[in-house]
Amino acid sequence: MEEVLSAHEKAILLGLARQAIEDAVRGRPFSPLDLHSLPEAIRKPGASFVTLTINGELRGCIGALEAYQPLAEDVREHAMGAALQDYRFSPVTQDELKELEIEISRLTPPQQLRYKTPQELLERLRPGVDGVILRDGLHRATFLPQVWEKLPDPADFLSHLCAKMGASPNTWCYRPLQAYTYQVEEFHEE
Fold first, then answer.
1. How wide is the angle at C-alpha 186 spanned by C-alphas 134 and 2, nearest 5°?
2. Structure letter (DSSP) for residue 70
3. Which of 65, 69, 141, 162 meets the CB 3.0–4.6 Å disulfide criterion with 171?
4. Residue 187 CB partners (closer than 8 Å, separation 6+)
5. pLDDT, tens only, 138-176
6. Per-residue pLDDT tens digits for 141-151
7. E-assigned strands of the chain?
8. Which residues of 37-76 are buried (b: 16+ CB within 10 A; e: fewer)?
9. Is 48 helix (H, G, I), strand (E, B) or coil?
10. pLDDT tens for each residue of 67-84
């Protein structure tokens, strides 16, 4: 990542995420964001994922793979989405707000990972470093680099990613897929 966020910038983003979640869960509209009052680094276009956990268990995760709006707005949008719109979970309730832990992942632009064989794909992945996107026609799925903690074996990682994409887990073994990698700057509430 070319420009690392400062502790102050991270704290602002975490505060914006927390406020967006609380507003959304309580049914309040987002307060307008005065971009000019924010540090330049978080006014620039940025892509983020916001991950919510309770006691270490996933409670929601929503994000964007490519930058299309200021990072501060991106974080607010995906914090609200993680709380209310992750199809895998019911919406976060007001009772859960105090237990919710927020993690933000700021993404680098995805880079295509070219490979010829399944073995070469396995060898080119960097566990714990790379987030991976697999694309097969109109279907695509991603795992953030943090997922390597739960799926450290590259073959397992790719099989689970294929299943997330809606394909057979071993699709990556018998048919070339488009693969992309990216890295993240991850930070969370203390």
1. 85
2. B
3. 162
4. 5, 10, 13, 14, 103, 104
5. 999 999 999 999 999 999 999 999 999 999 999 999 999
6. 999 999 999 99
7. 47-54, 57-63, 100-107, 111-112, 131-136, 139-143, 178-182, 184-188
8. ebeebbbeebbbbbbbbeeeeebbbbbbbebeebbbbbbb
9. strand
10. 999 999 999 999 999 999
Q: Supply the DSSP string of 94-147, one letter for each residue.
A: GGGGGGEEEEEEEEPPPEE---SSHHHHHHH--TTT-EEEEEETTEEEEE-GGG
**pLDDT higher than 80, residue 2:** no
What's the whole-number average pLDDT of the chain? 95
Q: What are phi and psi of 34, to 5 degrees?
A: -85, 90
Residue 184 has pLDDT above 80, yes or no: yes
Q: Among all chains, which residue has been given the structure tokens 């309580």?
A: 26
Residues 6, 9: Cα–Cα separation, whole Å:
5
pLDDT of 1 reads: 58
- Residue 32, pLDDT above cutoff 90: no
Residue of 67, 23, 22 whose CA lies nearest to 43? 67
